[in-house]
Every structure is written in C-alpha cells, then in structure tokens.
Amino acid sequence: MMIDRRELDNIIFYALGLTTGERDAVYEALSSSSQNASNAPRR
C-alpha cells in the first residue's frame, strides 16, 4: 500500500502536535531551502 506524501506528512505533523500555521512554515522553509540548493553554483 502506497501512502500519499501529504498524508504521511499530516500523520507526522499530527504526532508532533504542529498547528496548521506551523505546518505551512515547514513547507515554506523546505521550498526555500530547495530553491537555494538548486541555485547554488556547481563545482
């Protein structure tokens, strides 16, 4: 059985007791981090 990524995130966030605002902040931080990594110069 394959669990949807968002559903898995919700299970984890629920276990951690995160509010909706805190969950949104996590997604925003991950998105920003991902964008910064993709814009980093390659060696």
Commentary on this structure:
The protein has 43 residues and is mainly alpha-helical. Helices cover 74% and strands 0% of the residues. The protein contains 2 helices and no strands. The radius of gyration is 14 Å and the shape is flat. The mean pLDDT is 87.
Principal-axes shape call: flat
Distance between the termini: 40 Å
Strand pairing plus helix content: what structural class? mainly alpha
* Residue fraction in strands: under 5%
What does the largest sheet look like?
none
User: Which stretches are poorly predicted, pLDDT < 50 over at least 5 residues?
Assistant: none
Computed over alpha carbons, the radius of gyration is: 14 Å
> What percent of the residues sit in helical stretches (DSSP H or I)?
over 70%
Secondary-structure element order, as H and E?
Answer: HH
Which whole number gives the mean pLDDT? 87
